[in-house]
Design a protein that fits this description.
Strand content of chain B: under 5%
Helix content of chain A: 25-40%
Distance between the termini of chain B: 14 Å
Number of domains of chain A: 2
Largest interface: A-B, 24 and 33 residues
Number of helices of chain B: 21
Oligomer: heterodimer
Structural class of chain A: alpha+beta
Distance between the termini of chain A: 55 Å
Chain lengths: 609, 452
């Protein structure tokens, strides 16, 4: 059949990247031995970005036999997915593909993609996309290629004719003008230019040539995996080659909180020469580590001491561990040198942000009643700031309000914090006083009263809302969540939204302070974020009625359907144990590590015989 | 408003006349008919929208039975889901309360109850702009839902003690020696009698009767220390101890009967009754002991209600338009975004524009209102994701490939009305390449869609 008359509906319908991906699964009959060595050694050194997948077959097998998949399949979430039109359509497509090709999808991944695949981009005109796929053996590759060719032929009427060119004993084949490929043993090369395919073949022959693995830009990405072994997915890019990317990263932000949180990272990204990501998986979860390498470390990390002061070995790690073990739902722990940041803040704030600083300064002056925040308090701020959320039991009220919000708290570490107690107390009372005056002016009845109580040697101050008699109420409204309070434990100032939560923190932090345990070893960590799934799920559960009502009103569904959706969300969340994000600086490079932990089985899983 | 059809979709500006006989039940007339057109008319006016299943059920019974069925409200039951009510009240946000009430419009068991509550909400216009304790606004709406169809006197006595109303009209400032006349004035001018049916002296004396009617911690509180216990005279008669008695005196006056009966008539039947007709209405209202539900029943059963002059005489409010079309199509939309649409059309729930409520009538169809209605029509017909629209096309039997699609849709939207002459014009407007969504969008722009 004339190739010009053959309908290439399948090929026409897909974009070039998808064509490349689809045919990467294929291969032609090999004529020579397979390449060995790392996949990255097959791409040229001048690639500006790449993605590599290693041992996908093993990953697929691992997932298919995992407890996680069993849990998903037995969940209401999965049943709900099966009802979804698009998901069901996707499953049918896979079924059809398996039927047409004679391949099981898992076979395809295991055999043809057995060792892995890598795709890279190289700057030229036109930009080149290069890819290499390696099967476990040349027989697997040949088998896979044949099945794919047959599938395409079946759908399109015939497999398109290709132009063939010989190169160093290998055959380069071309479809249209933009897809060139070559099978070399168990390896399949493909690109949109013949030059790129030839380059990859050259690298497979001559191992001494400079390649992606040994390139100046990315060699560090591939080294140093050590005992952990190669990651499942590795990706890297040089941001300066992405048009407009660097320019879009702002230098100035419009509020001080954003600056404290993000200015350091924004600077690092702006001066980043290379950005890489590694994804690993295991029975306990998934980890994703992102690294940046600066072009000029002195410029990129000029403000390292402000935004990335590492933990030097102090109580913070112990405190965080203890709190997390005691049911904290989420914590953000930041390390910033507040005094140094204050001195350079104008570099990172636009005019609106600078106005927000003035307001912030006024509030802080009020809070530290009588002291100048900028000159007397700020220099005493130590680097760790912790923000927390936890479920509150509302034991004082006897019943939970609706909605039952988590308690929120902030912990600041201030040198000689006890010297600020009276100032904080005065400031707290002033703020409460302002609130009461405001309430009265608006004709509202409720009044906050400041009560003091002792927790051992610690004084806790709580603003109690003079609310109605609780016993007579059938349900308590949202305002019953709040009884703002503060206390000072050692050098930690605790400000909480709810008395019960503040009391909890006082007791826990006292225990760490008073213990004889040695100071924790330095972790080098900068920022940490932890969300504990079970605690989050519990919070959602106790607020099920409120959340269901929101869905009824906002989504136009019945209450039953809303409750079912919430149940599905609950099951999904409980598949996990926690999400942990931490950042650190290591040899001039900034690193972020995301760890998604799966929930541990409640009962031991019986091994099958 | 121009009409494509030439049918009378434009409300007349002439005054409606009517005799006592016209207010007698239609069922007493020998050759009266009860057909889908009349049933749909009743449904659109008494409730919100005219869904086909309701028409099919009600056309099988008599007009009296149909009216009794629609206006039946179980004692002390508001039919709301208690968990939803509790959740919304606990959070106490404006959006929550608005969304909850819109949800009752859309899915509540008694659209008659909701529409009547909306009438009272406009009549006793209290706005969340000032009453920012939104739970109290919710409580006020619940008051209208619970007692709106009962004796008017009782309703006014309750609203006089309603915390939202007290806050709205500065009741806490009304004290012995320095009476604040706000509530007394509105009570007479806007709530019970109308302008010209009282004197300034009546207002001053009534204000003294309401002294000490305060709110404390979100509840009504009779502050006896602030109350003026002295002798007061309203309408020339003494013996008034407190505000309840003032309310009774206001409500028992003939002027009040004319005022309230006329206002209910303008909302539900025709916007411009003449004076003679108002007299007859007042007599009817007094005959049923000023009970709102009984009065409305009598109106909905009357011959006048089904006359040609009354059909399509009212330009529908945003609530009537939006909720009406959703219920007619048996569709589903999300309540919270619907509140925004109605607000853009000029009717934001819980925020009447002034103490007189919403003016209604042609003010609904100014430029801004019409553009907002167009926007809603397009979003509804396109099953927009923000509005979470789901239209049961299969249930409505609207097959896009059907030759009679246009007639079928017109039949669903305007049951019992012969709009065949519209079909060629609609076909020409749409062209050949159109689906049922485009057709629905066009039909929702017809004048017939904006009048009830």
């Amino acid at each position: 059949m004339n190739s010009q008359t053959i309908k290439l509906s399948l090929l026409k319908a897909k974009k070039q990247a998808l064509i490349l991906g689809a045919v990467l699964f294929a291969g032609l009959s090999s004529v020579s031995f397979a390449s060995d060595g790392a996949l990255e050694s097959l791409l040229p050194a001048d690639v500006i970005g790449f993605v590599k997948i290693k041992d996908p077959g093993k990953a697929a097998e691992s997932f298919l036999s995992s407890d996680l998949l069993k849990k998903i399949q037995s969940s209401d979430f999965y049943q709900a997915m099966l009802q979804d039109e698009n998901f069901a359509k996707g499953l049918k497509e896979i079924e059809k593909f398996e039927k047409d090709s004679g391949f099981k999808a898992t076979e395809l991944v295991n055999e043809v993609l057995g060792d892995g695949a890598i795709v890279g981009v190289r700057l030229s005109f036109p930009p080149e996309v290069l890819g290499a796929v390696r099967a476990k053996s040349k027989e697997d590759m040949a088998k896979g290629v044949k099945k794919i060719k047959d599938t395409i032929a079946q759908r399109a009427g015939a497999f398109p004719e290709t132009e063939k060119v010989d190169y160093k004993g290998r055959t380069l084949e071309r479809i249209n003008k933009q897809f060139i490929f070559c099978v070399d043993g168990n390896t399949f090369f493909a690109s949109n230019t013949p030059r790129a395919v030839r380059d990859m073949i050259d690298l497979s022959i001559d191992k001494k040539k400079k390649n992606l693995e040994t390139s100046d830009s990315f060699k560090e990405v591939f080294s140093g995996d050590g005992k952990k072994g190669e990651p499942f997915i590795t990706a890297g890019v040089m941001p300066r080659y992405i048009p407009g990317f660097i320019d879009q990263i702002p230098r100035e932000v419009d509020n001080f909180l954003a600056s404290l949180l993000a200015s350091g990272w924004l600077e690092t990204l702006k001066h980043s020469d290379r950005f890489s990501v590694k994804l690993r998986y295991g029975s306990k979860g998934v980890s994703l580590v992102a690294d940046t390498k600066p072009a000029d470390a002195s410029e990129a990390l000029k403000h390292q001491s402000v935004f990335f002061p590492s933990e030097k070995g102090n109580l913070e790690s112990q405190e965080l561990k203890r709190l997390l073990d005691k049911g904290i739902a989420g914590v953000i722990h930041l390390r910033r040198d507040m005094k140094k940041w204050w001195d350079i803040k104008d570099q990172f704030l636009n005019p609106k942000g600078q106005r927000s600083i003035v307001e912030f300064n006024n509030v802080m002056n009020l809070l530290f009643g009588g002291k100048s925040f900028q000159d007397e308090v700020l220099p005493k701020f130590k680097e760790g700031i912790t923000l927390l959320a936890r479920r509150v039991e509302f034991s004082e009220l006897g019943k939970a309000p609706s909605p039952a919000l988590p308690g929120f708290a902030a912990i600041f570490r201030i040198e000689d914090a006890s010297k600020f107690r009276r100032n904080l107390q005065a400031g707290f009372q002033s703020i409460i006083g302002f609130i009461n005056v405001n309430q009265a002016q608006e004709g509202k009845d409720s009044t906050f009263l400041v009560e003091t109580e002792r927790v051992g040697k610690v004084k806790m101050f709580t603003a109690v809302n003079d609310l109605d008699d609780i016993e007579s109420k059938n349900n308590l409204g949202i305002e019953y969540n709040f009884s703002p309070s503060f206390a000072i434990v050692g050098n930690r100032v605790i400000i909480g939204s709810n008395r019960e939560f503040t009391l909890f923190l006082i007791n826990e932090l006292k225990a760490v302070t008073e213990s004889k345990t040695a100071v924790a070893k330095a972790t080098g960590a900068v920022d940490r974020l932890v969300v504990q799934a079970e605690q989050v799920a519990d919070l959602l559960k106790i607020n099920e009625s409120t959340l269901a009502t929101q869905m009824v009103l906002n989504d136009g569904i019945d209450r039953e359907e809303a409750v079912t959706r919430l149940k599905v969300i609950d099951q999904l969340i409980r598949l996990f144990k926690s999400v942990r994000l931490s950042t650190r600086i290591s040899e001039g490079q900034a690193q972020a590590r995301l760890l998604i932990q799966l929930a541990e089985p409640k009962t031991p899983v019986k091994e099958s015989l | 408003m121009a009409t494509l059809s030439g049918t009378k979709a434009t409300p007349s500006s002439e005054l409606l006349s009517g005799s006592k006989k016209d207010l007698e039940p239609m069922s007493q007339e020998a050759n009266s008919s009860w057909d889908p057109k009349k049933v749909a008319h009743l449904l659109r006016r008494a409730t919100l929208g005219a869904p086909e299943p309701m028409i099919e059920n009600l056309v099988k019974v008599s007009v009296d039975q149909a009216v009794d069925h629609l206006l039946a409200l179980e004692d002390d039951s508001l039919n709301s889901d208690p968990q939803t009510v509790e959740s919304v009240r606990s959070v106490g946000s404006l959006e929550g309360v608005q969304g909850w009430w819109a949800h009752e419009f859309l899915r509540g068991a008694s659209p008659f109850r909701e529409k009547l509550a909306l009438f009272w909400h406009g009549h006793f216009a209290t706005s969340a702009e000032k009453v920012d304790k939104y739970r109290l606004m919710m409580d006020q709406i619940q008051l209208f839902r619970k007692h709106g169809a009962g004796p008017f006197e009782y309703l006014v006595q309750e609203i006089s003690k309603d915390p939202a109303m007290v806050i709205w009209l500065d009741g806490n400032l009304n004290r012995k020696g320095t009476p604040n006349e706000n509530y007394a004035r509105e009570l007479m001018e806007l709530f019970t009698l109308g302008i010209g049916n009282y004197t300034e002296k009546d207002i001053q004396e009534a204000a003294r009767a309401f002294t000490g009617w305060h709110v404390k911690r979100g509840r009504f509180w009779f502050n006896k220390n602030a109350h003026d216990h002295g002798e007061k005279k309203v309408f020339g008669k003494g013996g008034i101890e407190n505000g309840d008695e003032v309310v009774r005196r206001c409500v028992e006056r003939k002027a009040s009967a004319r005022f309230i009966a006329g206002k209910l008539f303008r909302f539900y039947v025709h916007p411009r009754p003449n004076n003679k007709l108002i007299d007859h209405l007042a007599d009817l209202y007094i005959k049923v002991e000023r009970n709102t539900g009984a009065y409305l029943k009598a109106l909905f059963k009357s011959k006048l209600f089904y006359s040609d002059e009354v059909m399509r005489a009212i330009i529908c409010s945003p609530v009537d338009f939006c909720v009406g079309v959703v219920r007619t199509l048996q569709a589903r939309v999300a309540a919270t975004p619907l509140v925004e649409h109605m607000a853009r059309m000029g009717q934001e729930l819980l925020k009447p524009p002034n103490v007189k409520g919403w003016d209604g009538g042609r003010t609904w169809v100014g430029t801004t209102g019409l553009v907002a209605r167009l926007r809603f029509s397009l979003q509804l017909s396109q099953e927009n994701e923000d509005l979470k629209v789901r239209i049961p096309w299969a249930k409505l039997k609207l097959d896009p490939s059907s030759e009679s699609l246009i007639q079928d849709l017109l039949g669903r939207l305007f049951p019992g009305e012969d709009l065949t002459e519209l079909v060629p014009t609609i076909k020409e407007a749409l062209g050949t390449d159109h689906g049922r969504k485009e057709l629905l969008a066009l039909c929702l722009q017809l004048p017939e869609s904006h009048t009830i």
